[in-house]
Amino acid sequence: MVARMLSHRGFPFVSGRYTKLALQNATFSTSCRSNKSYQLVVVGGGAGGCSTAAKFSSKLGKGKVAVIEPADVHYYQPMWTLVGGGMKKLEDSKKSMSKVLPKKAEWIKQRVVSFDPSNNKVMTDDGCEVGYEYLVVAVGLQLNYHQIKGLPDAFETPGVCSNYSPLYVNKTLKSLESFREGNAIFSFPATPIKCAGAPQKAMYISEEYFRKHGKRDKANIIYNTSLPVIFGVKKYADALWEIVKERNITVNLRQNLIEVKPDSKEAVFQNLDKPDELTTFQYEMLHVTPPMSTPDSLRNCDSLVDAAGYLNVNKGTLQHVEFPNVFGIGDCTNVPTSKTAAAVAGQCGVLRKNLSLVIAGKAPTSLYDGYTSCPLVTGYSKCIMAEFDMNGNPLETFPINQAKERRLMFHFKKDVLPDMYWLGLLNGYWEGPKYVRKMLHLGFK
């Protein structure tokens, strides 16, 4: 869920000691020319960063909270599945960063290049040191296309696409439109990723596109996943196995994409159980889900991260295991739950309560239950609304079987969730469906 940004837009500015964006009804950015300090610093302007900044800039007051984020644009990334299928436009998924950050927070439009938690400061790429009393790390994940040989250059060639980047998501629909005959391959890498269901969503939408346009009999659809299962929660995995069988989709487990050869239109996969065994597939279309990791600046700070490079927090309280004035939220943490915007919503209420307690000199008491959600879009009109906790147990909001494909859930994903994100989550109002779930289940769940 959680969200990383890319700069695509510039805005008029006036120069002073700090560069300020002059935007009505919006926050402004500062280019740090000298060292500054704040009560709370939030690193990252994705879903977790925006929601945290909204909560605490209102609570602590103007000038007490800074958000460090280099991007001009904030993307609602869960929409990119629909963009790739032609159901939404990329423009629908983005807003100016200045419009989504709270007005009472100071926006430092720089990139953090290093963390120094022992001295309560971070360093930005313009050489500035930003001090803090409390730090929330919300830097999300970075996309590592370059770890696959032949990428990202292969994206300049026909048929290679990815819904995971605004640079390449529009190529998915173009690849579907230009598809003639052969293999349509969808990959899942050997790392944790944002929204683990998204590679399958692209596949199911593509399969229906081929049927709608008379190409299905010419398309051999293949899902090559590094995982040993089709999905990590058995209830939904069972439903997905039925779908792939019904739609004649080939699923190959423990297959990791390691190379793309665009000149010969070949993709090379490694068998993770037998690393010396490589299989080369011809492709007419190749949808790539890249390996992901935390950003280099966080991963290189040994005192903040675990052995895998993720922010090392208590999975219940979200407080760092070594530095009590540091908290984490979203994809960059090592909380063992699926990395989605829904997980951020479930975490932000816990973070609000626990950080407030720590600021007041008390111990954190609120515990995150691991709630996350993955709306598994299975075509142009249906969706399986998977909701579960960090132990893989279903944690469903509605009093119906959510493992069943439903048109209602498709429209909830397509038409309702975007507004909940923009108006609720980013403004710090939406903290997940916990109380809605209890009400709909008459207090029994």
Question: How would you characterize this protein structure?
Answer:
The protein has 445 residues and is an alpha/beta fold. The chain is 24% helix and 23% strand. It is built from ten helices and 24 strands. The chain has helices at 47-60, 80-84, 97-100, 170-178, 198-212, 234-246, 296-299, 341-359, 407-425, 434-440, and strands at residues 13-14, 20-21, 29-30, 36-43, 65-68, 73-75, 94-96, 106-108, 112-116, 121-124, 129-137, 142-143, 160-161, 182-188, 219-225, 250-252, 255-261, 266-271, 278-282, 285-287, 292-293, 326-328, 372-377, 383-388. Strands 3, 4, 5, 8, 9, 10, 11 and 22 form an eight-stranded mixed beta sheet that branches. A five-stranded parallel beta sheet has the order 13-20-14-15-16, covered by helices on one side. The chain has a three-stranded antiparallel beta sheet with strand order 17-18-19, with no helix packed on it. β1 and β2 form a beta hairpin. α1 runs parallel beside α8. The chain is globular and about 65 Å long. The chain starts with 12 loop residues before the first strand and ends in a 5-residue tail after the last helix.
Keywords:
single chain, 445 residues, alpha/beta, five-stranded parallel β-sheet, 10 helices, 24% helix, globular, disordered N terminus
Output mean pLDDT: 93
Globular, elongated, flat, extended or rod-shaped: what is the shape?
A: globular
Number of helices: 10
What is the oligomer described by this structure? Answer: single chain
Alpha carbon gyration radius: 22 Å
* Biggest pleated-sheet summary: 8 strands, mixed
> How many β strands by DSSP?
24
CA(first)-CA(last) distance: 25 Å
Q: Roughly what percent helix? A: 10-25%
**Estimated structural class:** alpha/beta
Report the uncertain regions: 1-26
Beta-strand content bin: 15-25%
